[in-house]
Amino acid sequence: MSHIDDANTVLAPDLSLKTAIPIPVFMYHYIRDLDEPSDQIGTNLSVSKAVFASEIAKYKSESYKTITFNKYLSGKASSKSIILTFDDGYDDAYTAYNILKQNDFTGIFYIITNRIDTTGYLTSAQIKEMADSGMVIGSHTISHPDLSTTTQEQTLKELTLSKSKLESIIGKPVVDFCYPSGKYTSKTIEVLQNVGYKTAVTTATATKPRFTNFFELPRIRVNHSDTPAGLINRLNSLLNE
Fold first, then answer.
1. Which pLDDT does position 210 carry in this prediction?
2. How far apart are CA 167 and CA 175, in angstroms?
3. Dihedral angle of Cα 111, 211, 192, 30, to the nearest 10 degrees
């Protein structure tokens, strides 16, 4: 659940919607084969490669197409648009990328920059390839801290240096952000705006697919137990509200 100082919630005019079309945003973590009773958290965050491929095939068969936040803000969304996001930059995000690419789908990948080129995470070369192939690369900070407790100086460092690091790798602007563990304050949002980000996703559950603030975007968490048909039912239920 997102943590924000309700008394100081930022609702500046530039955060208002530019389109009324509802867009569901899905949240993935690991794309891997893991079903380990001793690691329930890891298991719950894991979607197997086969199931993920089936989910993408199901979205496609139902005529859904992926879109990015940038395209949404440019007014290019349709009633069959969805957004797929992937947190943390694990090495199996490259698996997700290949499946998306094979289906002409796009994903937004949020990267923890001090874990790039380390065991279990994406390499710089993979991130560059993904960006060159049309995937969107977003920041998930340098070190995945709790941004609801960091100092202003620490927050600024986490947001700016992760952004510049990713931009140096992909050669493109990085304007999408993901709050680590969904934690932030109104001050975090102010820094995000000031340093050039355009969107930020939370871990709050989307109960309606309509956005009210581009720096507090809710998502639909995809878990180990989800099925392609179940996700489509959730998707259709949200869109028909």
1. 66
2. 10
3. -10
